[in-house]
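Protocol check, entry for the methods section draft. Step 1: assemble the input record (protein sequence plus ligand SMILES). Step 2: submit for complex structure prediction. Step 3: store the C-alpha coordinates unaltered in the notebook. Ligand used here: zinc ion. Step 1 record:
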Amino acid sequence: MKKYCIGVDVGGTSVKLGLFYHNGTVLKKWEIPTRKDKKGSNIIPDIAASIRSELVNEQIPLSEVSGAGMGVPGPTMSNGYVSKCVNLGWINCNPAEELSELLGIPVKAGNDANVAALGEAWKGGAEGFQDVVMMTLGTGVGGGVIMNGKIIAGNRGLGGELGHITVNCDESDKCNCGNKGCLEQYASATGVVKIAKRLLAERYSDSMIRNVEHLSAKKIFDAAKKKDGIAMEAVETLANYLGMALATVTLTIDPDIFVIGGGVSNAGEILVNTIEHYYKKYLAISEKRAKIVLASLGNDAGIYGAARMVLDQDVIEEE
Ligand SMILES: [Zn+2]
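Step 3, stored output:
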Protein backbone atom coordinates (compact mmCIF):
# COMPACT_ATOMS: atom_id res chain seq x y z
CA MET A 1 0.00 0.00 0.00
CA LYS A 2 1.22 3.49 -0.80
CA LYS A 3 1.73 5.57 2.30
CA TYR A 4 4.70 7.81 1.61
CA CYS A 5 5.41 10.90 -0.48
CA ILE A 6 8.55 12.90 -1.15
CA GLY A 7 9.08 16.67 -1.17
CA VAL A 8 11.99 18.23 -3.06
CA ASP A 9 12.94 21.92 -2.82
CA VAL A 10 15.56 22.86 -5.40
CA GLY A 11 17.59 25.90 -4.38
CA GLY A 12 20.58 27.67 -5.89
CA THR A 13 23.09 26.18 -3.45
CA SER A 14 21.39 23.11 -2.02
CA VAL A 15 18.46 20.80 -2.66
CA LYS A 16 16.31 20.07 0.40
CA LEU A 17 14.49 16.76 0.49
CA GLY A 18 11.90 15.26 2.82
CA LEU A 19 10.26 11.87 3.14
CA PHE A 20 6.70 12.13 4.47
CA TYR A 21 3.77 9.97 5.48
CA HIS A 22 0.57 10.90 3.65
CA ASN A 23 -0.73 12.63 6.78
CA GLY A 24 2.12 15.14 6.60
CA THR A 25 4.34 13.68 9.31
CA VAL A 26 7.94 13.99 8.24
CA LEU A 27 9.98 10.80 8.52
CA LYS A 28 13.32 12.14 7.35
CA LYS A 29 14.83 15.37 6.04
CA TRP A 30 18.13 15.75 4.26
CA GLU A 31 20.05 18.01 1.87
CA ILE A 32 22.37 17.62 -1.08
CA PRO A 33 24.45 20.27 -2.89
CA THR A 34 23.08 21.76 -6.12
CA ARG A 35 25.55 21.11 -8.93
CA LYS A 36 24.92 23.98 -11.30
CA ASP A 37 27.73 23.31 -13.78
CA LYS A 38 26.91 21.76 -17.21
CA LYS A 39 23.73 23.86 -17.40
CA GLY A 40 22.42 22.15 -14.28
CA SER A 41 22.18 18.78 -16.06
CA ASN A 42 23.36 16.85 -12.97
CA ILE A 43 20.73 18.26 -10.61
CA ILE A 44 17.86 15.89 -11.41
CA PRO A 45 20.02 12.72 -11.65
CA ASP A 46 21.60 13.69 -8.28
CA ILE A 47 18.13 14.06 -6.74
CA ALA A 48 16.99 10.69 -8.12
CA ALA A 49 20.10 8.90 -6.84
CA SER A 50 19.79 10.51 -3.41
CA ILE A 51 16.11 9.55 -3.08
CA ARG A 52 16.86 5.96 -4.11
CA SER A 53 19.67 5.59 -1.57
CA GLU A 54 17.67 7.14 1.30
CA LEU A 55 14.72 4.84 0.56
CA VAL A 56 17.08 1.85 0.65
CA ASN A 57 18.40 3.08 4.04
CA GLU A 58 14.84 3.33 5.34
CA GLN A 59 13.92 -0.05 3.78
CA ILE A 60 11.03 1.53 1.90
CA PRO A 61 10.35 0.19 -1.62
CA LEU A 62 9.52 2.79 -4.32
CA SER A 63 6.22 0.95 -4.81
CA GLU A 64 5.05 2.36 -1.45
CA VAL A 65 5.75 5.96 -2.52
CA SER A 66 2.83 7.85 -4.10
CA GLY A 67 5.11 10.29 -5.84
CA ALA A 68 7.35 13.30 -5.45
CA GLY A 69 6.73 17.02 -5.70
CA MET A 70 9.36 19.58 -6.54
CA GLY A 71 9.73 23.31 -5.97
CA VAL A 72 11.70 25.08 -8.72
CA PRO A 73 13.22 28.58 -8.27
CA GLY A 74 11.62 30.07 -11.40
CA PRO A 75 8.37 30.17 -13.38
CA THR A 76 7.01 26.64 -13.71
CA MET A 77 3.92 25.57 -15.67
CA SER A 78 1.42 23.22 -14.07
CA ASN A 79 2.60 20.45 -16.46
CA GLY A 80 6.12 20.91 -15.06
CA TYR A 81 7.57 22.74 -18.06
CA VAL A 82 10.30 25.28 -17.26
CA SER A 83 11.22 27.67 -20.06
CA LYS A 84 14.05 29.33 -18.18
CA CYS A 85 15.45 28.99 -14.68
CA VAL A 86 18.34 31.47 -14.48
CA ASN A 87 19.55 30.31 -11.04
CA LEU A 88 20.08 26.71 -12.14
CA GLY A 89 20.97 27.12 -15.81
CA TRP A 90 17.86 25.21 -16.94
CA ILE A 91 16.38 26.16 -20.32
CA ASN A 92 13.35 24.59 -22.03
CA CYS A 93 13.14 21.50 -19.88
CA ASN A 94 10.71 19.47 -17.84
CA PRO A 95 12.53 18.49 -14.63
CA ALA A 96 9.40 16.81 -13.23
CA GLU A 97 9.14 14.51 -16.27
CA GLU A 98 12.85 13.73 -16.05
CA LEU A 99 12.69 12.84 -12.33
CA SER A 100 9.56 10.76 -12.93
CA GLU A 101 11.36 8.74 -15.63
CA LEU A 102 14.38 8.18 -13.38
CA LEU A 103 12.33 7.03 -10.37
CA GLY A 104 9.30 5.45 -12.03
CA ILE A 105 6.85 7.36 -9.80
CA PRO A 106 4.62 10.41 -10.55
CA VAL A 107 6.36 13.76 -10.09
CA LYS A 108 4.81 17.22 -10.06
CA ALA A 109 6.64 20.55 -10.04
CA GLY A 110 5.76 24.12 -9.23
CA ASN A 111 7.39 27.48 -8.64
CA ASP A 112 9.11 27.37 -5.23
CA ALA A 113 7.17 30.29 -3.75
CA ASN A 114 3.85 28.70 -4.79
CA VAL A 115 5.00 25.37 -3.37
CA ALA A 116 6.02 27.01 -0.06
CA ALA A 117 2.54 28.56 0.11
CA LEU A 118 1.02 25.09 -0.28
CA GLY A 119 3.28 23.86 2.54
CA GLU A 120 2.10 26.65 4.88
CA ALA A 121 -1.51 25.89 3.89
CA TRP A 122 -1.03 22.19 4.66
CA LYS A 123 0.96 22.17 7.90
CA GLY A 124 2.06 25.74 8.63
CA GLY A 125 0.67 29.14 9.59
CA ALA A 126 -2.43 28.69 7.39
CA GLU A 127 -3.18 25.06 8.31
CA GLY A 128 -6.82 24.25 7.75
CA PHE A 129 -7.49 27.03 5.22
CA GLN A 130 -8.25 26.34 1.55
CA ASP A 131 -7.68 29.79 0.02
CA VAL A 132 -4.25 31.00 1.08
CA VAL A 133 -1.86 33.64 -0.24
CA MET A 134 1.72 33.65 0.94
CA MET A 135 4.24 36.46 0.63
CA THR A 136 7.86 35.43 1.15
CA LEU A 137 9.90 38.49 2.08
CA GLY A 138 13.51 37.49 1.49
CA THR A 139 16.22 38.95 -0.74
CA GLY A 140 13.34 39.41 -3.17
CA VAL A 141 9.59 39.00 -2.67
CA GLY A 142 8.05 35.67 -3.65
CA GLY A 143 4.33 35.04 -3.78
CA GLY A 144 2.17 31.96 -3.78
CA VAL A 145 -1.56 31.58 -4.37
CA ILE A 146 -3.54 28.55 -3.23
CA MET A 147 -7.24 28.34 -4.12
CA ASN A 148 -9.38 25.36 -3.10
CA GLY A 149 -6.19 23.76 -1.79
CA LYS A 150 -4.46 23.91 -5.17
CA ILE A 151 -1.61 26.05 -6.55
CA ILE A 152 -2.63 28.67 -9.09
CA ALA A 153 0.30 28.53 -11.55
CA GLY A 154 -1.53 30.47 -14.25
CA ASN A 155 -1.41 30.08 -18.01
CA ARG A 156 2.17 31.26 -18.39
CA GLY A 157 3.56 30.29 -15.00
CA LEU A 158 3.11 33.85 -13.74
CA GLY A 159 0.40 33.07 -11.19
CA GLY A 160 1.49 34.20 -7.75
CA GLU A 161 4.40 36.43 -8.93
CA LEU A 162 3.18 38.97 -6.41
CA GLY A 163 6.59 40.55 -5.88
CA HIS A 164 6.26 42.21 -9.28
CA ILE A 165 2.93 43.88 -8.73
CA THR A 166 3.50 47.59 -9.39
CA VAL A 167 2.88 49.59 -6.22
CA ASN A 168 4.66 52.87 -7.05
CA CYS A 169 4.52 54.42 -10.52
CA ASP A 170 6.90 57.20 -9.48
CA GLU A 171 9.91 54.97 -8.80
CA SER A 172 13.04 55.86 -10.78
CA ASP A 173 15.09 52.69 -10.01
CA LYS A 174 14.59 49.50 -11.97
CA CYS A 175 13.51 46.18 -10.45
CA ASN A 176 15.37 42.98 -11.48
CA CYS A 177 12.42 42.21 -13.76
CA GLY A 178 12.92 45.43 -15.75
CA ASN A 179 9.86 47.29 -14.40
CA LYS A 180 10.07 50.27 -12.02
CA GLY A 181 8.14 50.36 -8.74
CA CYS A 182 7.56 46.64 -8.05
CA LEU A 183 6.55 45.49 -4.53
CA GLU A 184 9.87 43.62 -4.34
CA GLN A 185 11.74 46.94 -4.45
CA TYR A 186 10.26 47.88 -1.05
CA ALA A 187 9.06 44.80 0.82
CA SER A 188 12.22 42.68 0.57
CA ALA A 189 15.27 42.67 2.85
CA THR A 190 17.21 44.66 0.24
CA GLY A 191 14.20 46.89 -0.36
CA VAL A 192 13.77 48.05 3.23
CA VAL A 193 17.49 48.80 3.50
CA LYS A 194 17.23 50.97 0.39
CA ILE A 195 14.18 52.78 1.79
CA ALA A 196 16.07 53.47 5.03
CA LYS A 197 19.16 54.73 3.17
CA ARG A 198 17.01 57.10 1.12
CA LEU A 199 15.35 58.43 4.29
CA LEU A 200 18.72 58.88 6.01
CA ALA A 201 19.94 60.91 3.04
CA GLU A 202 16.78 63.07 2.99
CA ARG A 203 16.39 63.70 6.72
CA TYR A 204 18.73 65.49 9.11
CA SER A 205 17.26 63.91 12.25
CA ASP A 206 19.38 61.74 14.47
CA SER A 207 18.88 57.99 14.16
CA MET A 208 20.24 54.74 15.62
CA ILE A 209 20.67 53.43 12.10
CA ARG A 210 22.67 56.40 10.85
CA ASN A 211 26.35 55.48 10.32
CA VAL A 212 25.59 51.80 11.00
CA GLU A 213 27.94 49.54 9.08
CA HIS A 214 26.24 46.89 6.92
CA LEU A 215 22.73 48.14 7.53
CA SER A 216 20.30 45.19 7.35
CA ALA A 217 16.56 44.61 7.56
CA LYS A 218 17.06 43.16 11.04
CA LYS A 219 18.92 46.27 12.26
CA ILE A 220 16.14 48.49 10.88
CA PHE A 221 13.37 46.48 12.56
CA ASP A 222 15.30 46.33 15.84
CA ALA A 223 15.65 50.14 15.78
CA ALA A 224 11.96 50.53 14.87
CA LYS A 225 11.01 48.41 17.91
CA LYS A 226 12.96 50.96 19.99
CA LYS A 227 10.89 53.75 18.35
CA ASP A 228 13.69 55.15 16.20
CA GLY A 229 11.98 57.69 13.92
CA ILE A 230 13.68 56.91 10.62
CA ALA A 231 13.60 53.14 11.19
CA MET A 232 9.87 53.38 11.97
CA GLU A 233 9.31 55.38 8.81
CA ALA A 234 11.16 52.74 6.77
CA VAL A 235 9.00 49.98 8.27
CA GLU A 236 5.86 52.06 7.62
CA THR A 237 6.90 52.53 3.99
CA LEU A 238 7.43 48.78 3.54
CA ALA A 239 4.09 48.01 5.21
CA ASN A 240 2.31 50.67 3.17
CA TYR A 241 3.31 49.04 -0.13
CA LEU A 242 2.71 45.52 1.16
CA GLY A 243 -0.70 46.47 2.55
CA MET A 244 -1.55 47.98 -0.82
CA ALA A 245 -0.59 44.73 -2.57
CA LEU A 246 -2.60 42.60 -0.09
CA ALA A 247 -5.65 44.79 -0.73
CA THR A 248 -5.16 44.37 -4.49
CA VAL A 249 -4.93 40.59 -4.09
CA THR A 250 -8.03 40.60 -1.86
CA LEU A 251 -9.99 42.48 -4.49
CA THR A 252 -8.90 39.88 -7.06
CA ILE A 253 -9.43 36.55 -5.27
CA ASP A 254 -10.50 37.38 -1.68
CA PRO A 255 -8.50 34.65 0.14
CA ASP A 256 -9.14 33.38 3.70
CA ILE A 257 -5.71 34.24 4.98
CA PHE A 258 -2.34 35.80 4.13
CA VAL A 259 0.86 34.17 5.37
CA ILE A 260 3.98 36.32 5.67
CA GLY A 261 7.26 34.38 5.51
CA GLY A 262 10.92 34.81 4.57
CA GLY A 263 13.79 36.32 6.54
CA VAL A 264 12.11 39.74 6.95
CA SER A 265 9.15 38.06 8.70
CA ASN A 266 11.45 37.26 11.65
CA ALA A 267 10.67 40.84 12.71
CA GLY A 268 7.40 39.32 14.02
CA GLU A 269 4.40 41.18 15.41
CA ILE A 270 5.59 44.71 14.57
CA LEU A 271 5.56 43.70 10.89
CA VAL A 272 2.12 42.05 10.98
CA ASN A 273 0.58 44.93 12.94
CA THR A 274 1.95 47.61 10.62
CA ILE A 275 0.88 45.69 7.49
CA GLU A 276 -2.61 45.21 8.99
CA HIS A 277 -2.94 48.96 9.49
CA TYR A 278 -2.30 49.70 5.80
CA TYR A 279 -4.21 46.67 4.53
CA LYS A 280 -7.26 47.99 6.39
CA LYS A 281 -6.71 51.49 4.96
CA TYR A 282 -6.63 50.28 1.35
CA LEU A 283 -9.52 47.87 1.82
CA ALA A 284 -11.93 50.59 2.91
CA ILE A 285 -14.63 48.88 0.82
CA SER A 286 -15.17 46.16 3.46
CA GLU A 287 -15.16 45.69 7.22
CA LYS A 288 -14.37 42.01 6.70
CA ARG A 289 -10.77 41.28 5.86
CA ALA A 290 -8.53 38.25 5.47
CA LYS A 291 -6.37 37.27 8.43
CA ILE A 292 -2.65 38.06 8.30
CA VAL A 293 -0.36 35.56 10.06
CA LEU A 294 3.34 34.72 10.18
CA ALA A 295 4.64 31.61 8.43
CA SER A 296 5.63 28.79 10.77
CA LEU A 297 7.54 26.21 8.73
CA GLY A 298 10.60 28.36 7.96
CA ASN A 299 12.90 26.78 5.37
CA ASP A 300 10.88 23.55 5.44
CA ALA A 301 7.77 25.07 3.81
CA GLY A 302 9.11 24.05 0.40
CA ILE A 303 9.49 20.34 1.12
CA TYR A 304 6.09 20.19 2.86
CA GLY A 305 4.35 21.89 -0.06
CA ALA A 306 6.18 19.77 -2.61
CA ALA A 307 5.17 16.56 -0.84
CA ARG A 308 1.57 17.77 -0.63
CA MET A 309 1.48 18.40 -4.40
CA VAL A 310 1.40 14.70 -5.24
CA LEU A 311 -1.45 13.88 -2.87
CA ASP A 312 -5.04 14.27 -3.99
CA GLN A 313 -7.52 15.50 -1.42
CA ASP A 314 -9.23 12.07 -1.31
CA VAL A 315 -5.97 10.36 -0.35
CA ILE A 316 -5.71 12.65 2.69
CA GLU A 317 -9.34 12.19 3.68
CA GLU A 318 -9.10 8.39 3.51
CA GLU A 319 -6.79 8.33 6.51
ZN1 LIG B 1 9.76 43.56 -10.70
